[in-house]
Amino acid sequence: MLRGDDKKDFWRYDTGGGGWSELHNAPKDVDDGGAITYGHGAIYAFRGDGKKDFWTYSTSTGEWSQLHSAPANVKHGGALVYLNGYVYAFRGDRKKDFWRYSVSSGTWVDLHDAPGGVKKGGSLATDGTTIYALRGDGRKDFWRYSITDNAWDDIQDTPKGIGYGGSLASDGVNIYALRGDDRKDFWIFTSNENSWTTLPNTPKDVDGGGGLTFLNGTIYAVRGDGKKEFWDY
After folding, report:
1. pTM score, whole prediction
2. 55-95: per-residue pLDDT in tens?
3. DSSP letter string, 77-108
4. How far apart are alpha carbons 186 and 178 in whole angstroms?
5. Which string of DSSP letters, residue by residue, matches 20-49?
6. DSSP state of 93
7. Which of 1, 3, 111, 164 is most buried, by the most CB atoms less than 10 A from its CB?
8. What are the C-alpha distances in Å from 159 to residues 78, 92, 132, 188, 197?
9. For residue range 195-205, what is the model confidence (pLDDT) as tens digits?
10. In the CATH scheme, what is the homologous superfamily, with its name and number, of domain 1-119?
């Protein structure tokens, strides 16, 4: 996990009961729009903060490396997701830019723009076939991207507007979402029914820096908002 907050801290949580440990710091400070994703033995990260920096962290060597910079500056709403040898990315900053990075060639390409500008709370997740996205910026927009068709679809809006700390994760079938925006809302999206269901609220309000991930049958969440709370579901 990247700490953000204009810091370089990078941590790992041992789900087997070992707790948190500090890893090698990120190359530079990470701030708004910082994002992280994992795929094929490596972690990929945006620095955010209106910068183009894009890095990889090797889980085998424990070292960071600079990759080819993003095509444009990344800010609020920057997001990443890995799928089948590629990293897909939102630029954020109320822009529609949507990019793909090839791990094998080390190059970026422009894909079809998102349906609307993405900002605070913008997020990406995949069920292993399709990519899902939150627009954020206080809006309910929820989209699905077809890799085969390079096209976006509007699907069922989230129950309420998404703000700072909005985040997505997938268990490989369903999509889970934090609303953020200093709220406790937590939902599940069932793709074959195109519908949202309300789940139990998070223990406390989630805001900027909040995030979700899924591992081995459990959802893990950070509260953000400059707090240390870390929960599982």
Report:
1. 0.98
2. 999 999 999 999 999 999 999 999 999 999 999 999 999 99
3. T-EEEEETTEEEEE--TTB--EEEEETTTTEE
4. 5
5. EEE-PPPSS-B-TT-EEEEETTEEEEE--T
6. T
7. 164
8. 22, 22, 16, 10, 9
9. 999 999 999 99
10. Kelch-type beta propeller (2.120.10.80)
